[in-house]
């Protein structure tokens, strides 16, 4: 059954790939045989992740880029294709979720930052890489969204709205670049990544969900491998909740 998740000969590009859920996916893709392009704003963090990939016997390309800046994304795509000649898997994982005291006190600068990273960037990167994927015969795009898009809460309007917009992009690009490019959403719940260090201690132990606890970062891996690999050949335009059964 492990052959279903075989990524030998594939190239994956993961935004926000130097830490958290992105890093877990980078590790999993490399272990499954893929070469990986790792991007985040900090080149040293990308290089550290790239060293892990190389130790697994795979090639890695660290690239510093700000996903809200379209010239950075154009350059990112160009250097990825120059290095590997292809991108088979694109994971739009980079995101930000800062809180504001209230919606009325949310500044225009903060609003633009959140929407830029969570929606504007994935739109552009999916557009330019998805087009190349379609021209080359296929690929898989995975948008990492949030339970906040389907269970929004007070003071999180820009975040929840931008993630809901990302969910809509999944359908847009599944239709635009199908049938050869598959586009799907992972709707992630609370995971014990770096961001969880700022949570109250009780929230790190238990949450209101069927499973009753936050996710461990490695628990994102099997869903990501499924969507990245040929195992999901008939899955596109879908949203898969990986949130422990939040309610």
Question: What can you see in these coordinates?
Answer:
- With 247 residues, this protein is an alpha/beta fold.
- It contains 7 helices and 7 strands, in the order βαβαβαβαβαβααβ.
- The protein has helices at 20-31, 43-55, 70-84, 108-136, 157-177, 201-205, 221-228, and strands at residues 11-15, 35-40, 60-64, 89-92, 139-146, 181-188, 239-242.
- It has a 7-stranded parallel sheet, sandwiched between helices.
- Strand 4 (89-92), helix 4 and strand 5 (139-146) form a beta-alpha-beta unit.
- It is globular.
- The mean pLDDT is 96.
User: Into which percent range does the helicity of residues fall?
Assistant: 40-55%
Indicate the structural class.
alpha/beta
Cα distance spanning the termini: 32 Å
Q: In percent terms, what proportion of residues is strand?
A: 15-25%
Instruction: Name the poorly predicted regions.
Output: none
General form: globular
Major beta sheet, specifics?
Answer: 7 strands, parallel
In spatial order, strands of the major sheet run 3-2-1-4-5-6-7
Topology of this structure?
Layout: E1 11-15, H1 20-31, E2 35-40, H2 43-55, E3 60-64, H3 70-84, E4 89-92, H4 108-136, E5 139-146, H5 157-177, E6 181-188, H6 201-205, H7 221-228, E7 239-242
Helix pairs in contact: 1-7, 3-4, 4-5
Give structural attributes:
single chain, 247 residues, alpha/beta, globular
Describe the structure in brief.
With 247 residues, this protein is α/β, with parallel strands linked by helices. The chain is built from 7 helices and 7 strands, in the order E-H-E-H-E-H-E-H-E-H-E-H-H-E.
């Amino acid at each position: 059954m492990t052959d279903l998740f075989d990524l030998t000969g594939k190239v994956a590009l993961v935004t926000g790939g130097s830490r958290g859920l992105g890093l877990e996916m980078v590790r999993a893709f490399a272990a499954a045989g893929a070469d990986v392009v790792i991007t985040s704003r900090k080149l040293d963090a990308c290089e550290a992740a790239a060293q892990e990939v190389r130790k697994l016997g795979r090639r890695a390309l660290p690239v510093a880029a700000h996903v809200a800046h379209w010239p950075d994304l154009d350059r990112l795509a160009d250097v990825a294709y120059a290095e590997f000649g292809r991108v088979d898997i694109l994971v739009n994982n980079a995101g930000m979720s800062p809180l504001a005291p209230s919606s009325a006190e949310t500044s225009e600068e903060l609003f633009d930052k959140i929407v830029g990273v969570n929606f504007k960037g994935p739109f552009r990167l999916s557009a330019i890489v998805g087009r190349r994927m379609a021209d080359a015969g296929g690929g898989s795009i995975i948008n990492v969204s949030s339970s906040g898009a389907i269970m929004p809460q007070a003071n999180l309007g820009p975040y929840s709205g931008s993630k809901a917009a990302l969910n809509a992009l999944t359908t847009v690009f599944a239709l635009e670049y199908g049938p050869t490019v598959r586009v799907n959403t992972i709707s992630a719940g609370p995971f014990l990544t770096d961001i969880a260090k700022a949570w109250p201690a009780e929230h790190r132990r238990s949450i209101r969900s069927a499973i009753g606890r936050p996710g461990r970062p490695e628990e994102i891996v099997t869903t990501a491998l499924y969507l990245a690999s040929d195992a999901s050949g008939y899955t596109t335009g879908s949203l898969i909740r990986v949130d422990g059964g939040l309610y």
